[in-house]
Amino acid sequence: MSENCSHDCSNCSEECASRGIIKEKSNEKSNIKKVIGVISGKGGVGKSFVTSILAVTAMKNGHKTAILDADITGPSIPKLFGVTEKSYSPDGKFLLPVNSKEGIKVMSVNLLLENDTDPVVWRGPIIAGTVKQFWTDVAWGDVDYMFVDMPPGTGDVPLTVFQSLPVDGIVIVSTPQELVTMIVEKAVKMAEMMNIPILGIVENMSYYKCPKCGEKLYVFGKSNVEKTAEKYGIKNFIQIPIDPKVAEYADKGLTETIETDYLQDFFKSIK
Ligand code: ADP
């Protein structure tokens, strides 16, 4: 801890006891101020989409932003941003992240594979080791907010990630039918065990707004994010509607052009 420590970790990139357990050291060419993990109980709930739009919101607020794609077996971040360039190492000692069109720094296993359809058939420890290397061996440069797209669930890999990366807080992504407290309860307990604050809950695909009459249709069942957040004392939550444009924009790699103004207050409350 520096002599001048203000105990406000959001303005400091030092890795010290005040920030939690001393974890893996980031690369010497990295200066990362805040790390936010985005987790979900299971795949397909929109965790990568939410990671991306949170990063876009941070970027639009003038912050230097990065995404570490820790979802090694299902990496979707490069595709969402239309990033096709590969990561490379100028001297064999460190890797460079790849910039999105608007300047979000991205590292993902797909930026290292020859073909992005090549499957990653690795065992848990190798996968966790790769995520660690994305932290230790990537020269991220100056980053105000790094969002980590975590693998789904509370298994081996997310556990290792929480133990090795200095995650400042997590955002839980769920959908109405899944948000039956059990999944959130597991995530809350895991976060407590790891001593990591829960910054907020995102209920994705919460409803569909009829374009003709504006009525909100709860396609996956009534929202219960508010009740769940209250039960666990989580102050920040948001409902994101089903938007048919999301899949279309994602397929075209145009996530940065998606309207994200509605996330402004949520982002400010978790930052
Ligand atoms: P996960 O990371 O949890 O596996 P993804 O972010 O890959 O989930 O999203 C799964 C699919 O759902 C993708 O095809 C994505 O485009 C779509 N999707 C996610 N959120 C929404 C939304 N709010 N409206 C419409 N489609 C969505």
Strand order of the largest sheet: 3-4-2-5-1-6-7-10
Specify Rg, calculated over alpha carbons. Answer: 18 Å
Tally the helices: what do you get? 8
- Distinct ligand kinds: adenosine-5'-diphosphate
What is the rounded distance between the termini?
22 Å
- Sheet/helix structural class: alpha/beta
Write down how many β-strands occur, each being a DSSP E stretch of 2 or more residues. 10
Spans with pLDDT under 50 lasting ≥5 residues?
Answer: none
Q: What is the general shape? A: globular
Please, could you describe this protein's structure?
The chain has helices spanning 47-60, 77-81, 124-136, 156-164, 182-194, 225-231, 244-251, 264-270; strands at 30-40, 65-69, 98-99, 105-107, 141-149, 169-174, 198-203, 208-209, 216-217, 237-239. β6 (169-174), α5 (182-194) and β7 form a beta-alpha-beta unit. It has eight helices and ten strands. The longest helix has 14 residues, at 47-60. α3 (124-136) runs parallel beside α4. The model has no long low-confidence stretch (mean pLDDT 88). An eight-stranded mixed beta sheet has the order 3-4-2-5-1-6-7-10, with helices on both faces. The chain has 271 residues and is of the alpha/beta class. The chain starts with 29 loop residues before the first strand and ends with a helix. It is globular, with a radius of gyration of 18 Å. The chain binds adenosine-5'-diphosphate. Residues 40, 43-49, 76, 204-205, 240, 242-243, 246-247, 250 line the site of adenosine-5'-diphosphate.
